[in-house]
Design brief:
There is one protein chain. The chain has eleven helices and eight strands. It has a single domain (about 1-300), classed as 3-Layer(aba) Sandwich (Rossmann fold), CATH 3.40.50. It starts with a helix and ends in a 7-residue tail after the last helix. An eight-stranded mixed sheet has the order 1-2-4-3-5-6-7-8, sandwiched between helices. It is globular and about 45 Å long. It is of the alpha/beta class and about 300 residues long.
């Protein structure tokens, strides 16, 4: 498969020792954002910035139940820096933003934080934004406002353009919703997942919760302004979003200025990065990053790496 070949190329060029994941903070003006960072031993080929979904924390991308579920560790082991942030209203910023903030303000704060972070740390050829669920929406909104030339692409999962039947009414409640919606069949997750994930689960901030139901309208407005490659992934057991052929086609068609595609991940629920198939998904994320790097090299007139 193409993603396996791309992953092998990336692995061959990467460091061999797994990098530790450590806690970091970033300044976003007068707001401090917390997060987790993993870096390779040498200079990173690119920086992956990961944004969690509603009611979660940055640790979603560093699953503790099974080491194979950590996107951060896998990315660093293959030569990339990987930064997972607690979105505004979560983690260190929760005290300053007890009600959170709307999606537009979140994108502005994230961009401010990254603008301050990037000059101090090498990010190689550029940045890939990775988002899950509502974090995917924030990643797309941030991409639509990105003005520097160092954004490589956007890889999102667990978000679409049309709510599944009955999902919109649940989405704005801000409560800890049923396992059925967020997780799908429990057998999709390694033993100990729910115990390990409990510290990551938190109520959705009120201002964020009020904004969630209007995401499809927000997507229609921002999608034409995204100009970098975008990849969507839908889990087999996705409950929140329509992911039938017609709905996905409409989702991709909105991205009129960006190359875009979608994929499906078998044996996965909405919380893809904590499931048994997390590593398969994360390998595909890194393969997509390789594609974005190749496109950037071709656009610059440089030969792709062998």
């Amino acid at each position: 498969m193409d993603h396996d070949r791309e992953a092998a190329r990336s692995s061959a060029a990467a460091t061999t020792a797994p990098a530790p994941v450590r806690a970091v903070t970033l300044d976003a003006g007068d707001i401090t954002l917390s997060g987790l960072l993993a870096e390779p031993a040498g200079a990173p080929r690119a920086l992956l910035v990961a944004l969690h979904g509603g009611g979660m924390r940055a640790g979603y991308f560093d699953g503790r139940a099974d080491p194979d579920t950590s996107l951060l560790a896998l990315a660093a082991s293959r030569g990339y820096a990987a930064l997972a942030l607690d979105r505004p209203g979560y983690g260190a910023s929760a005290a300053r933003l007890p009600s959170g903030t709307d999606l537009s303000a979140q994108a502005d704060l994230l961009h401010t934080a990254l603008d301050a972070h990037l000059p101090d740390r090498p990010c190689g050829a550029g940045v890939l934004l990775v988002g899950h669920s509502l974090g995917g929406g924030i990643a797309l909104l941030t991409a639509a406002r990105w003005t520097d030339g160092n954004l490589l692409g956007v890889d999102v999962s667990g978000i679409g353009g049309q709510w599944a039947p009955g999902a919109r009414q649940l989405a704005g409640s801000g409560a800890r919703l049923s396992h059925h919606m967020h997780w799908g069949p429990l057998a999709l997750y390694p033993p100990g997942t729910f115990r390990a994930a409990d510290p990551l689960i938190t109520p959705v901030p009120a201002d964020e919760a009020r904004a969630i139901p209007d995401w499809p309208r927000a997507y229609e407005q921002l999608a034409p302004r995204v100009r970098v490659p975008v990849r969507f992934t839908f889990a087999e057991h996705e409950r929140w979003w329509r992911c039938d052929t017609a709905a996905v086609r409409a989702l991709l068609d909105r991205l009129e200025s960006a190359p875009a595609r979608s994929e499906r991940l078998p044996d996965a629920g909405h919380n893809i990065s904590l499931g048994r198939t997390a590593r398969d998904y994360h390998v595909r994320v890194l393969a997509f990053l390789e594609e974005c790097l190749t496109l950037r090299q071709a656009a610059a007139g440089r030969p792709a790496r062998p």
